[in-house]
Amino acid sequence: MKRGDAFSVKKLPAQLRESLPAVYVDDWLVSIKYFVDEEESHLKIQEDELCARCEDKPCLYFCPVNVYTLGSDGRIQVAYQACVECGSCRVGCPYDNIEWKLPRGGYGVAYKFG
Ligand code: SF4
Ligand code: SF4
Q: Would the pLDDT of 12 be above 90?
């Protein structure tokens, strides 16, 4: 898989694919309710310069809902509205370059179970 390619389980080697549990993120996403804060993002790239030097750009892969994408200007775009608050980007960025906080009170995702 080349950098910038969209991730797909089908592209993984067969042995790895068969070892994965039968969990599909899309199935879980339908159970989420979003209360989007249109005025303030709770996610922020701190320094674009650092991203430019970040060779593997893991943020393009670890986010389960593809919040981070590479813009045509080469900068990382942040679609914070889709964030499901899993917290992966707090630990996944090798340069600690993503400012992450919970959405303001009353905003964010609500999970319903059962
Ligand atoms: S992983 Fe971090 S430093 Fe690298 S491109 Fe993404 S946000 Fe920037
Ligand atoms: S907290 Fe999770 S869902 Fe939200 S942007 Fe980070 S990796 Fe994506």
A: no
Residue 114 has pLDDT above 60, yes or no: no
Can you name the CATH fold of 24-111? Alpha-Beta Plaits (3.30.70)
Ligand 2 in reach of 83 Cβ (< 6 A): yes
Cβ of 69 less than 6 Å from ligand 2: no
Is residue 48 within 8 Å of 75, Cβ to Cβ? Answer: yes
Task: State whether the beta carbon of 41 lies less than 6 angstroms from ligand 2.
Answer: no
Report the pLDDT value the prediction gives residue 5, as an integer from 0 to 100: 59
- Taking the model in full, what pTM does it have? 0.79
* Closest ligand 2 atom number to CA of residue 92: 7
Distance in Å, CA 59 to ligand 2 centroid? 9
- In this prediction, residue 1 has a pLDDT band, given cuts at 50, 70 and 90, of low
Contact between residue 104 and residue 40 where contact means Cβ atoms under 8 Å apart:
yes
Residue-range domain boundaries for the chain:
24-111
Strand 76-78 and strand 32-35: the pairing is: unpaired
